[in-house]
Amino acid sequence: MVRHSVTKAVGTTYTTLKGGSIMAEETTNAVEETAAPVSGSIEVTAKKGEREATIVYDFGKDLDEMVSKFGGEIVHQNARANMKISLQGIMRRRLEAGEACEDLVETWKPGTVMERTVDPLATAKKAMAGMSEDEKQAFIAELLG
């Protein structure tokens, strides 16, 4: 079983800054303990500007435990929201490639990987869009070899 260490400090706030430096307010007491992670736990990290926070949150190890912890309606709403975002991503890729999306009603299933169609010309044009004229010329020269 994988174990992780948790450092707790009484009266101290630690903030990890970009580049790995840590900003800390003064402390009066610090303790380190090692605990086994809960099987449904996931490490969640959020960044905002220079600040970063990481916590380990127990979402539940399976559907039954999630429903027990949060209720069926909450689990259902969150599953639908996640599936919607996944489907939108596939639709955006298809729209960008000039393909139709209507068949997804019958062919898409959550959790499956859809085949991606890549248009090399569209990819090159997109890459060149942010280039200066000199960069574009160098890019074309490199392509022509």
What's the topology here?
Layout: E1 4-10, E2 14-16, E3 22-24, E4 29-35, E5 41-48, E6 51-58, H1 63-70, H2 72-96, H3 104-107, H4 120-128, H5 133-144
Antiparallel strand pairs: 1-4, 2-3, 5-6
Helix pairs in contact: 1-2
Short descriptors:
6 strands, disordered N terminus, two-stranded antiparallel ribbon, 3 domains, 5 helices, 145 residues, two-stranded antiparallel sheet, alpha+beta
Helix/strand/pairing category: alpha+beta
Q: What is the number of E strands?
A: 6
Largest sheet: 2 strands, antiparallel
Spatial arrangement of strands, main beta sheet: 1-4
Low-pLDDT stretches: 1-12, 26-34
Number of domains: 3
How many angstroms separate the termini? 53 Å
What can you see in these coordinates?
The chain starts with a strand and ends with a helix. It has helices at 63-70, 72-96, 104-107, 120-128, 133-144, and strands spanning 4-10, 14-16, 22-24, 29-35, 41-48, 51-58. By secondary structure, it is an alpha+beta fold. The model is unreliable at 1-12 and 26-34 (pLDDT under 50). It has 3 domains: 4-61, no CATH class; 62-114, no CATH class; 118-145, no CATH class.
